[in-house]
């Protein structure tokens, strides 16, 4: 299965939104309210992510992280106002890259190293985005199969859930195996409140996908403090019980972002974190590209993807220097704001104002934040991602795809992020090989009764080819010939060689082959042995010069073997037809204009009469018989030599369309349609042809209507033969 264009966002927020204001710009009041709600949503997530990354030993960096994470939302959203053509596109620090970095943050010895890990990841993400924008490489995401993409993102949701639980219970496994020892005192209460809070957020989002989770957030926190007040516990009692976060002084209040931390980084720990940082960059790029795709579908117009990549890369470079985590656009926030009526830049401006206000009151928020709130919010976000990319896919995806998605989630949880990415890359390669191998390598099979060269011949040569049509077959190939697909070529060739009558010349038409690998070359050599054993020959035709040189260097097509190379399938067919004609004893002078007319009308006297009325023309080699664009409606019968139909490409270079040997009739289409000539008629060798012009036909209409009828029957039979062969080709191509 190949990867479809994925339009689902990384940060899912529930059911698909309908647009109640589609077709009109949102009213100013609606745009403002949409900005307020979206700003509060982004603010709460930024606070939760900061608490997730900077808690415990790293709590001294919480204040700076809060400023950075919220500030990154402001910058990314302000940037989104520039490439959305009127709509607000929101951006934020995202959970997927952050959770990938949590194992590295857990072993960081100090706040400076933690900021360096986050900032270094953001800088690398920004640089990668800038390069992708420069070379327009955003479409590369489509090379990953959908189950692999979904597996990575679902794993990010699972890691978010695990991280949320660890905020309360450092050892979740112990909580399962020995709950009595792990869930003591405030931990059990906090975990229960976090689960209930996450359930409330989920319920709110299900009831109102636009602002339900924000309402649930406000009501949940309000209900908590109301219970504290009514029960007499109060804020101080809740803090003593471990239900509230530490006071600002213990949380590092006043420690603002800066550049000084780079001088205090533990380089050894930073080096060990590089693989996880690379994984975060990969997940960040993937998430950004998928979110842009989701925004395009939601807004129902194209987003300037390269500009979005370049701008988001610049934001990551700037905030990364200060130690912020990677950020990118959020399709969830963008589409929620649009659903609420935020169909102008006003929503983005208002959201930025809300975020800036949140920075100003961050100390109070941190001091009064119940411990279950960030954990519950992260549980909600993690579940939404996991549901969007895995749990909710059960009815839409095949069992195989679901197994792969689930396998990547388990691999991430059990083995870690890096092994899971390696597994995903291996699965992508396996998907490519298996799915490409399912494509038909052999596009068509045809013998000479269906497909011949672009040479029209006289009756004797045509009859000889008709009798021996089963001795030459063309096998049309397509796509990339590699170890997974090329084996499909052996069976049909063997069937041709062992059939009745057996085929003695097989032409492999490779004009539509884009590439080959060493396994394909080995298969060609196997076909050579097969052809030799049956006394047959195989011609590989139509390879590009690059591919032809590559196979020649490996001995394919060497002299004295049953395997040959030809520039084109037409050249190979011409050679095969010429050999059959020689074997049939047909000589060069077996066909001429007289024999062609006799064969067509069955009356030698009538043929002689018509030939006497036609004008005999002698054409030197290279001379033009008819020019393209001329109004000539003459019909010609070739008597000797060879006349070619030469077309011209858009740049004026000539190319041969067909050739006509003695006994062939040409020009009848222009005669009947009375249209200008669409190609030149040029002699490829010294030639003789007989011309029948409209003046002769007009005279026959008056003096000998029977002869005119015979001529029309000859022309009609010629057209019918050509149409019949064309129909056979079309039937073979569509089968």
Automatic annotation (TrEMBL):
Keywords attached to this entry: Membrane, Transmembrane, Transmembrane helix
InterPro entries for this protein: cNMP-bd_dom, cNMP-bd_dom_sf, Membrane-Transporter-like, RmlC-like_jellyroll, SLC26A/SulP_dom, STAS_dom, STAS_dom_sf
Subcellular location field: Membrane
GO cellular component: membrane
STAS domain ranges (all copies): 472-576
Pfam family membership, one: STAS
PROSITE patterns for this protein: CNMP_BINDING_3 (PS50042), STAS (PS50801)
UniProt topology in membrane: Multi-pass membrane protein
Cyclic nucleotide-binding domain residues: 610-692
NAD keyword on record: no
Transmembrane segment boundaries: 31-54, 60-82, 89-108, 114-132, 144-168, 188-207, 214-238, 276-299, 346-366, 402-433
Leader peptide range in chain numbering: none
Superkingdom, taxonomy of origin: Bacteria
Protein name in UniProt: SulP family sulfate permease
Species of the source: Aliiruegeria haliotis
Lineage: Bacteria, Pseudomonadati, Pseudomonadota, Alphaproteobacteria, Rhodobacterales
